[in-house]
Amino acid sequence: MLIRLASRRGHDKEREIGATAVEYALMASLIAMVIFAAVALIGPKLGLIFTEAAASL
C-alpha cells in the first residue's frame, strides 16, 4: 500500500511540470499578442511623428 502511494506521488510531480510548461506557453503567447496589438495601434502614429520630425529638419 505504501509503495503505491509513493509511486503515485512521483507521477504527480511529472504532471505539475507539464502543466507549468503549458502555463508558460500560454503566458508567452498572451504577452506576444499584447505586444503585437500595441505595435499595430501605435505604429502608424509613431511613423507620423518621425515623418514630421524629418520634414522639419
Would you kindly provide a written description of the structure presented here, covering whatever features stand out?
This protein has a domain at 24-56. Helix content is 96%, strand content 0%. The protein has one helix and no strands. It is mainly α. It has one helix at residues 2-56.
Structure described in brief:
The protein is an all-alpha fold and 57 residues long. The protein is 96% helix and 0% strand. Keywords: Membrane, Transmembrane, Transmembrane helix.
Question: Which stretches are poorly predicted, pLDDT < 50 over at least 5 residues?
Answer: none
Q: Give the strand content.
A: under 5%
Biggest β-sheet strands, sense, barrel: none
Which structural class fits the helix and strand makeup?
mainly alpha
In sequence order, what are the helices and strands, one letter per element? Answer: H
Overall geometric form: rod-shaped
Portion in helices: over 70%
| Mean pLDDT, all residues | 82
Tally of DSSP β-strands: 0
Terminal Cα span:
81 Å
How many separate helices? Answer: 1
The rounded Rg comes to: 25 Å
Pfam family, one: Flp_Fap
Keywords: Membrane, Transmembrane, Transmembrane helix
Protein name: Flp family type IVb pilin
InterPro entries: Flp_Fap
